[in-house]
Each structure stands twice: as C-alpha cells, then as structure tokens.
Design goal:
CATH architecture of one domain: 3-Layer(aba) Sandwich
Distance between the termini: 64 Å
Mean pLDDT: 91
Protein name: Phosphate acetyltransferase
Order of helices and strands: EEEHEHEHEHEHEEHEHEHHEHEEHEE
Keywords: Acyltransferase, Transferase
Strand content: 15-25%
Shape: flat
Oligomer: single chain
EC number: 2.3.1.8
Family: Belongs to the phosphate acetyltransferase and butyryltransferase family.
Number of helices: 11
InterPro entries: P_Ac_Bu_trans, Phos_Acetyltrans/Butyryltrans, PTA_PTB
Low-confidence stretches: none
Length: 363
C-alpha cells in the first residue's frame, strides 16, 4: 500500500506483474475506494494478462541489420515525418538514403528539426514532380535499389514509376501490401491490396496474389496460405468477388499462381477463426491460419488495415510490389517501429536476386 486517505476511503497500491521466472514484466498503481464495512469473499482466479511486444516486425528489422544497407532514393522528403524516417533508417544501418528534392528546403527543414545531414547524398531538384522523375532515373541508372515516398502524393510518385517510356514497369501489375503485426493474431499477416488498385479485375487480382506470395517467400514463409476474402464464403453469381475468388483458386491449381495454398471465397470470420470455419462446416487448410488476406477492392483493404491499426493496435509496414524495385510507403501517422519495418521489408526484397523486377521462382 502506497497511501491511504481515511476521510475519502481512497487507497493507492503499488502493483507489480511477474512472469513464471519471477521477472518483473509490468508495474503500475491501482486506486480503489475501500468499503465502509469489512467484506469477506472467495479469492477470484488471477486475471490473465497478455503483453504484445510487436516482435514480428522487429524480427524482420533484425534480419535486415545483418545485410549491407540498401541505397534508397527518398522522393521529396520535405516534411519532418518523411525526412526523419529516412535519416533514422540510415542511422540504424538499414538503408543509405539519397535525398531527392529541393536542396534548400531540405536543409532548412533539417536545421529546424535538428537533423544531421552529414554524409547523406543530396540530389537537388526544383519540385516534387522532378524529384519523382529523378528518383526513378537513379534506379534505372543502377544507383538506387529501392524508392521511398516522401511528402508528395502517392499518385505523383506512381505516375513516374508506371511511365511506359521512363518508368519501372515489369510484366506484373503494380500492387500494394501491408505487412501487419496484429496483437490478436498468432503470426505476421499480409493484407493486400489496400492502396493502389481501386477495383481490380481478375487478372489484376492474380498479380496481387502472386506479388504477395513472393513477398511472403522473401520473409521466410515457404508455402504461404492465402485467403481470398469476400462478404460470404459461398459462390454467388451476383457477387463478382466470389466468382473471382473461385477463379483464383483454380488458377492456383493450374499453376497460373504458384508457391502458395489458396482458398476462397472466405468471409473474414472463417478465414481468421478455425472455430468460425468449423461452425459453418468449412474444411480448409487456410481457415484459421492464413498468411495473406486478399481483399476484394481497395476500399475493403484500406478499411480493414486501418481498423486493425486503430482499433486492434496493429502495426502495418506498407510496401509497393511489382515494379523493378520495392517502393516504401509510410504515413505521417506511422510510429517509428512501423517506419523502420517498412524500410526493412523493402531492403529484404531488394536483397533477393531479381529477374526483370520479379523474385526468382515467382510465378
């Protein structure tokens, strides 16, 4: 007991939570109002406490630290969030940042924020559009192995990436994936596509699947399980996402999608929960254990990712796939851990031998 106030009957206790080894894992205080009369009752069972440390993303950052830093062209880093993230990743040894933008503006921002630009390569261009063009050019010249979005709109950057004359296109469509660390889920979870393809057709969904599968392989998941998410788990000709899901599974059977186990359509509950799948009599190797969730469209993916982030305290590292190099997408709302994880995932992708921008062995 730390303190007691007799007149208000308020009591403050110091609290300590220990694990099975007797190590302190959490401390705090509890304030209670004591009863006026003595109460006797049976001792309740101890409450279960779960502490989420977000080790899944940290593990990928740790793997990246064992590799040489990757040259990353940072496009128009003209706000505190993007410039700070690039410099932090450089200090951590994950990347070698090449800052592409208006030099005077970047230097002024760095001075205001107390950032040290010593040893950082700077590419002076007049505005954000020129920054996107020059960053893509650095990749084509072999001077950068990844891109990182700064304080320009995603569409402005992607317009240069997908340019048929000077861009970074491959035979695959450009897609987006969130690598998420969800406290209530037992392993890393890839959610795709939540940022690039608004209403993907079947061929685009095929590339969304394959790009995410290739990412999973790079992360060390040899045969990822892919759940094709819809509102229902049965095929309905009036719901295109259900017929697309069935087609994607057949494409996997025929080798048009490779390196993974696919199932769909699956509703989110029976994709994530084995018990929910059992109650609906769904016998699936994917149900309750997916590595990848493929959503029907951008709206569904963006809502799901933000719901997991802001309501389930998940971390999500965003990356664009399908171009000749990985592209790091971070948000001003991302924390330091998430920003470093986004850089780490891109660096792991960049470290894998590529054939025209596609990982070797990809379908």
């Amino acid at each position: 007991m730390r303190e007691k106030h007799a007149e208000t009957r308020r009591v403050t206790f110091d609290c300590r939570c220990v694990n099975a080894r007797g190590e302190t894992v959490m401390t705090g205080t509890a304030r209670v109002i004591a009863p006026k009369v003595r109460i006797t009752m049976e001792r309740p069972d101890a409450a279960q406490v779960s502490i989420q440390s977000h080790d899944n993303l940290e593990n990928f950052v740790g793997r990246c630290r064992q590799l040489p830093p990757v040259a990353v062209a940072v496009v128009h880093p003209c706000d505190e969030s993007s410039l700070g993230a690039a410099l932090e990743a450089t200090r951590e040894g994950l990347i070698e940042a090449i800052l592409v933008g208006p030099l005077a503006r970047i230097r002024t921002l760095a001075e205001q924020q107390g950032f040290d630009l010593t040893g950082i390569r700077l590419e002076d261009v007049p505005h954000s559009h020129a920054a996107a063009f020059r960053a893509v050019e650095l990749v084509r010249l072999g001077q950068a192995a990844a891109l990182m979005k700064g304080s320009l709109h995603t569409d402005e950057l992607m317009a240069e990436v997908v340019s048929r004359e000077t861009g970074l296109r491959t035979e695959r469509r450009i897609t987006h994936a969130f690598l998420m660390d969800v406290p209530t889920y037992h392993k890393p979870l890839i959610v795709t596509d939540a940022a690039i393809n608004i209403s993907p057709d079947l061929d685009t969904k095929r590339d969304i699947c394959q790009n995410a599968i290739d990412l999973a392989h790079v992360l060390g998941i040899a045969r990822p399980k892919v759940a094709i998410i819809c509102a229902v788990e049965t095929i309905n000709s009036r719901m295109a996402c259900t017929t697309d899901a069935a087609s994607l599974c057949k494409m996997a059977d025929r080798g048009q999608i490779s390196g993974a186990i696919l199932d769909g359509p699956l509703a989110l509950d029976n994709a994530i929960s084995k018990e929910a799948a059992r109650m609906k009599k769904i016998d699936s190797p994917v149900a309750g254990d997916p590595d990848i969730l493929v959503v029907p469209d951008l709206a569904a993916g963006n809502i799901l990712a933000k719901q997991l982030t802001f309501m389930s305290h998940a971390d999500g590292a965003g990356i664009v796939l399908g171009a000749r190099v990985p592209i790091i997408l971070t948000s001003r709302a991302d924390n330091k851990r998430t920003k470093l994880a986004s850089c780490a995932v891109a660096c792991l992708m960049a470290s894998v031998p590529m054939v025209d921008g596609l990982t070797k062995g990809g379908g």
